[in-house]
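Regression test attached.
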Amino acid sequence: KAGVTQTPRYLIKTRGQQVTLSCSPISGHRSVSWYQQTPGQGLQFLFEYFSETQRNKGNFPGRFSGRQFSNSRSEMNVSTLELGDSALYLCASSSRAGGGETQYFGPGTRLLVL
Amino acid sequence: QKEVEQNSGPLSVPEGAIASLNCTYSDRGSQSFFWYRQYSGKSPELIMFIYSNGDKEDGRFTAQLNKASQYVSLLIRDSQPSDSATYLCAVNVQAGTALIFGKGTTLSVSS
């Protein structure tokens, strides 16, 4: 089975721009969770989607948003980028909703905001 | 504020030794516990999960859960230099909610 894929792998943006990241889960997995990882804060949960519905949301500003399509692929969008948004963005898929189910991570998208 | 705490390390052990990684969590009702390994520049990969009190073994890895004391640990037997990585503890407080991650412990195994 193919693993979780994320595109793009690397991205450089400037402050004020917006960015869209994409995640394709493992085939058959319907839950996609997004995380932000920084050296200072570690892995922080952004949101989870299951069957096109947002199930959980972390403590991030409204500039961070996401969606999920009928084929379970998910996108996250960050508008009005700030320097502090520079991070590794990881998506993880699981077969069921909720964190109790084992999650498998994609390779991540490394975003640098200048 | 639900928290997961790990000693950031680095934890240094010689090759062949047992590495012991610990994690404590604040919410007594936590249900599922996971250990992930993350190599520098890579994404986390699942090592083990444990739901019940006691030990769970998988090859050189043993996860231990003590819900009364609110800690979960990971033992790595016969440590190898390739085990050098950051180990992340993750806890699911309640079914249907997100995983909460600790900040990780960096393990260094010297040959």
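Expected vs. actual: identical. Chain A has no helices and eleven strands.
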